[in-house]
Design a protein that fits this description.
Blueprint: E1 2-12, E2 17-28, E3 33-37, H1 44-52, E4 59-64, E5 67-68, H2 73-83, E6 84-87, H3 99-109, H4 114-127, H5 143-155, E7 161-165, H6 173-188, E8 192-196, H7 200-203, E9 208-213, E10 216-220
Parallel strand pairs: 3-8, 3-9, 6-7, 7-8
Antiparallel strand pairs: 1-2, 1-4, 4-5, 9-10
The protein binds adenosine-5'-triphosphate and magnesium ion (MG).
Length: about 220
């Protein structure tokens, strides 16, 4: 379980102070499929990045299965690295590498042994339905296929918590449904998915809908 307690993120400029997150408390249970919505600038990306550890909150603490950010720095870092997978809207695939090499990358960084690497990479590419495109380069893939590569890359290291920031933002309806279908499969396998979306149709597919306004959670159903 991930628990945010009174988390705020404040940006101070010479003119004003912006609370990208304003006293947010939230419990994320294992195996939930959560979507986060809200107007542009309300703090959705900040919330995901704070959970992922890419942004440090100005106030409050986060607990990951009991590990506390302020106390267990090393363990929290390890937890995030090993258990979280991140998918961004622009998926940030490397265009000079084919599908296989893109998915392989996180394992190479972890110095995974070659045979194990191959097995995991092929397994995930199959799971997202791209075994025919294993040697293709990203610019030869549709937006939805590229996003599925990003899912495989986020998951290949064994993550069980997936943070997805508008993973369907640049996709047409069919591709968006296929990507969310993949995320739903992950939930079925017991993984936790937190997804930012603007798409009202996709909200229906989630277990829980968190709506944000001006750095606060205004509804959670
Ligand atoms: N590095 C930064 N410095 C100053 N202000 C920032 C910074 N990052 C974000 N903000 C501000 O924090 C607020 C929340 O930003 P955030 O990116 O979380 O919004 P969002 O809900 O993801 O919006 P969108 O739907 O457009 O992606 C915005 O007002 C934004 O301008
Ligand atoms: Mg955003």
């Amino acid at each position: 379980m991930i628990e945010l307690n009174n988390v705020s993120k404040k940006y101070v400029s010479y003119r004003d102070v912006i609370y990208a997150l304003n006293n947010v408390s939230l419990k994320v249970n294992d195996g939930e499929f959560i979507c986060i919505t809200g107007e542009s600038g309300c703090g959705k990306t900040t919330l995901l990045n704070v959970i992922a550890g890419m942004i440090t909150p100005t106030e409050g603490e986060i607990r990951y299965d009991g590990l506390i950010t302020s106390r267990d720095k090393k363990e929290v870092q390890k937890y995030r690295r090993e258990r979280m997978g991140i998918i961004l809207q622009d998926h940030s695939l490397l265009y000079d590498r084919n599908v296989y090499s893109n998915v392989e990358l996180p394992l190479l960084l972890k110095k995974t042994e070659k045979e194990e690497c191959k097995e995991k990479v092929c397994d995930w590419i199959k799971r997202v339905g791209l075994e025919d495109k294993m040697r293709s380069y990203p610019d030869r893939l549709s937006g939805g296929e590229q996003q599925r590569v990003a899912i495989a890359r986020a998951m290949v290291g064994g993550a069980d918590i997936v943070l997805a920031d508008e993973p369907t933002g640049s996709l047409d309806e069919d591709n968006a449904l296929s990507v969310v279908g993949q995320l739903k499969d992950l939930v079925r396998d017991g993984k936790t998915v937190i997804m930012v979306t603007h798409d009202l149709d996709l909200i229906e597919m989630c277990d829980r809908h968190i709506r944000m306004e001006k750095g606060k959670i205004v509804s959670d159903i």
